[in-house]
Amino acid sequence: MIPTLPIPITPPRQGAEGTARPFRLAVQKRGRLTDDSLQLLRDCGLDLATHQARLLVPATTMPVEVLFLRDDDIGDYVRSGVADAGLLGENVVHEQGTDSLIVRRLGFGRCRLSLAVPRGAVYDGPASLAGLRVATTYPRLLAAFLERHGVQADIHELRGSVEVAPAIGLADAICDLVSSGSTLFSNGLREVETILPSQAVLIARPDLPPPAERLLQTLLFRIDAVQRASDVRYILLNAPTASVDAISALLPGLQSPTVMPLARQGWCSIHSVIPADGSWDIIDRVRALGAEGILVTTIEKVVA
Ligand code: PRP
Ligand code: ZN
Fold it and tell me: Is the pLDDT of residue 254 over 90?
């Protein structure tokens, strides 16, 4: 089933090599994931001809066009072949039951689908929801949660603004996405249960024709390089030659650290790659071994 489109768009590819339109990647139009999704694409070398408020924007650096959609629609577009791939929240993918389309978890847009109740309400576990009205835009995930816990509650499906439902008397509890928690807080709600942790994911059609499949692989290769880079830092330092072995042992690097003699007698420069987590700990330890002039910088890409 092909969703109805607001403007005419080339129909799904026929799969023939050579006749292909540009690779079409769907991204959330306006929302939590939009900025980080576009940043990831830029980091992967995909620059867009900037045209705010357009549905379909061609990339200037790759044979790709970006289709801006509501996150809830991205799955349908990819399944039907109108788009080849999409960036969206795992929460939406799970709700729509299309987990098999996920090709990468992207590590940003982390949030959770949670249950929340009015701040003063009693909650002693899922059984407390029995007989209550729970408002949500995630009826399938909520139903599965209630069933897992053997609880009968009334699922009240809404299209949005779930957080105001208890205050206006439409529901006794809600099941919604929580990121910073400020939406719950400002609506007098208390998070009581996490149903599903979520992050941004890349989904793709499983039956891509060869040119599109190659483009997807290029994109995945670049995403992996960017993700690996975000987990590490580059460290440069000067060390007394006598400490080089001890310091090198703390700096495994991608293969092993680079050690170069300095013009100054008895000193070396050491370069390496270290985990971003724990880089302060490493700095403390190499300083204790006599290191000086320590520089730590971010890395753009790591191609293993
Ligand atoms: C979610 C959710 C809340 C908000 C929570 O909406 O529905 O409104 O984010 O974030 P917070 O904990 O940081 O306050 P989202 O941006 O995903 O939009 P959508 O549900 O309309 O797709
Ligand atoms: Zn949405």
Answer: no
- 9 pLDDT above the threshold of 60: no
Atom number of ligand 1 nearest to Cα 137:
20
Probe ligand 1: pick from 179, 182, 190, max atoms within 8 Å of CB?
179
Mean pLDDT score of the chain: 92
Residue 76 in contact with ligand 1 by CB distance below 6 A: no
Let me know: does 174 contact 163? Beta carbons within 8 Å.
yes
This prediction has a pTM of: 0.86
| Confidence at 255, pLDDT banded by 50, 70, 90 | confident
Which class for 80: exposed (0-12), middle (13-18), buried (19 or more C-beta within 10 A)? middle
What is the C-alpha to C-alpha distance for residues 65 and 68, in angstroms, rounded to an integer?
10
Any ligand 1 atom below 6 A from CB of 177: yes
Query: Atom 14 of ligand 1 has which residue's CA nearest to it?
Result: 183
Residue type, 273: V
Distance from Cα 222 to the centre of ligand 1, integer Å: 29
Task: Point out the least confidently predicted range of 41-55, 64-78, 108-122, 168-182.
Answer: 41-55
Dihedral over Cα of 200, 204, 210, 211: its sign: negative
What is the rounded CA–CA span in Å between residue 58 and residue 63?
Answer: 8
